[in-house]
Design brief:
Helix 1 runs antiparallel to helix 5 and helix 2 runs antiparallel to helix 3. The chain starts with a helix and ends in a 25-residue tail after the last helix. By secondary structure, it is mainly alpha-helical. It is 75% helix and 0% strand.
Length: 202
C-alpha cells in the first residue's frame, strides 16, 4: 500500500511540475507575442510617416519646378533619392534583420538629406518661398520629419522592451525554442556623420 501511495504522490508531483512548466511556457510565449505585435505595430507607424514624406515630395518638386532657373541637379537628386527608397527590398520582418533595416534607413536618410538640400536651395528664390503652396508644403514636410523622428524613437523603445524581455531567463529559453519567430529586434541608429554640424554652401 505504501509503495502505491508513494508512486501516486510522485506521479502527482510530476504531473503538477509538467503543468506548471507548460503554464509558464504558455504565459512566456504569450508575452513575447504581445511585445512582438507591439513592435510590429510601431514599425507600421514608422512606415506611415515615411510614406507621408514620400507622398509630399512630388508635390514639392512640382511646386519648385515652376521657379525660374531653379537648380536642376537638386531636383534630380530628390527624384533619384525617392526612387531609390522605392527600390529597397524589405524582408517580411525587417525589424529582425539589422542589415536590411540599415539599408532601408540609409535610403531614407539620403532622401531626407536631398529634401533638406532642396529646401535650403529654395531659400535663394524669394518668389518661390513667398508662394503659399511652397510654404504649406514646407510646413508639412517639417512636420513629417518630426513625426518620423518620434515614430523611430517609439519603435526603438518597443524594440528595446522586446529585446530586454527576450533576453531574460527563462524567456530566453522559450524564445530559442521558437527560433526566428522571436528573433532580436534591430534598432534605428543615427546617420553617419550626424555628430558633425551640416555644411551649407551657396
Amino acid at each position: 500500500m505504501r509503495t502505491i501511495g508513494r508512486l501516486g504522490v510522485v506521479t502527482i508531483a510530476i504531473i503538477a511540475g509538467v503543468l506548471l512548466l507548460g503554464g509558464t511556457c504558455a504565459l512566456t510565449y504569450n508575452k513575447l507575442v504581445r511585445l512582438d505585435q507591439a513592435s510590429r505595430a510601431q514599425w507600421a507607424q514608422v512606415e506611415n510617416a515615411y510614406q507621408r514624406r514620400a507622398d509630399l515630395i512630388p508635390n514639392l518638386v512640382e511646386t519648385v519646378k515652376g521657379a525660374a532657373a531653379f537648380e536642376r541637379d537638386t531636383l534630380i537628386a530628390v527624384t533619384n533619392a525617392r526612387a531609390k527608397v522605392g527600390q529597397v527590398t524589405m524582408p517580411e520582418d525587417i525589424t529582425s534583420n539589422p542589415d536590411a533595416l540599415r539599408q532601408y534607413q540609409q535610403a531614407q536618410d539620403q532622401l531626407g538629406s536631398a529634401v533638406g538640400r532642396l529646401l535650403v536651395v529654395a531659400e535663394a528664390y524669394p518668389n518661390l518661398t513667398a508662394t503659399q503652396a511652397f510654404r504649406d508644403l514646407q510646413a508639412q514636410l517639417e512636420g513629417t520629419e518630426n513625426r518620423i523622428t518620434v515614430e523611430r524613437m517609439r519603435f526603438n523603445e518597443t524594440a528595446r522592451e522586446f529585446n530586454s524581455v527576450r533576453s531574460t531567463f527563462p524567456t530566453s529559453i522559450v524564445a530559442a525554442l521558437f527560433g526566428s519567430k522571436f528573433a532580436e529586434k534591430a534598432y534605428f541608429t543615427a546617420a553617419a556623420g550626424s555628430d558633425r554640424p551640416p555644411r551649407v554652401e551657396f
